[in-house]
Design brief:
Order of helices and strands: HEHEHEHEHHHHHHHHEHEHE
CATH architecture of the largest domain: 3-Layer(aba) Sandwich
Oligomer: single chain
Number of helices: 14
Helix content: 40-55%
CATH class of the largest domain: Alpha Beta
Strand order of the largest sheet: 3-2-1-4-5-7-6
Radius of gyration: 21 Å
Structural class: alpha/beta
Number of strands: 7
Amino acid sequence: MEFSHTPVLLHETIERLNIKADGTYIDGTAGGGGHSHAIAEKLSSGRLLAIDQDPDAIKVLHERFSSFPCVTICQCNFSDMKKAAEQNGISSADGVLLDLGVSSYQFDNPERGFSYRHDAPLDMRMSRHGVSARDIVNKLSYEELSDIIFRYGEDRNARSIARGIVRAREKAPIETTLQLAEIVKHSIPAKFRRGSGHPARKTFQALRIKVNGELDRLSEGLDAAFSLLKPEGRLAVISFQSLEDRIVKQRMAKWCQGCICPPDFPVCVCGRKPKAKLLLRKGISPTEEEIKENPRSRSARLRVCIKLHED
């Protein structure tokens, strides 16, 4: 299967990054190269560092950008982008893009084990290394499983699902995606099975986030990206679920916060000044037309901030 991923909010993102022909840019989650290609096309003497942790994506990126001398490709997690940038002679950037979540290729390729719609080994590792979803569901305690499903899946049925997993694995190891999906389905009350979406959706999201350490990597990646930005440089982040978006929103708000003195103080004594300003106050969501063409874009939200000059 070809590594493909329809770039979400493509035009909105490229417009807000305000690409300069001689600028330096980093795509921390290059995937199939959709956003990266749009950036590279606007460069002349500039540079683009395209990063991805998935070895399948890296192969495709090398092929797709073989005729683009301005593009450097690096395999790592975007949380390590500062180290990757330094290793490739980049000390600062005019813009950084993070397109979070899972690519269409990873979802649609059964052998990667991300989807409850295909029967495949229970994997979910974006980098193909480390602890898999199979390891988690078969080895962690009921309490740990319940906490993961509730925290990362925000599922009110976390306890009953965790109990169902523990009961099932006592009979035989849980090996495949459809096996787990059926366990989840039969572990929750019937009224929740009739709700919108597959009953295993939140559990699969929770396991994927845990397997890949997504929220920790996101927090680290945001700080790394912001530290690399030049004054007036822009950070654009596309998130697909509430946990990610909340972290992005709060981190950007923190950078944009100025004085934190009590309002009754006559003068500022904290000396705190904003490090950034928001380009999009509430973020941007896909248009109805884009959602119709690409239903997976429905939950996407783009947030952009601009780094300010230090006094």
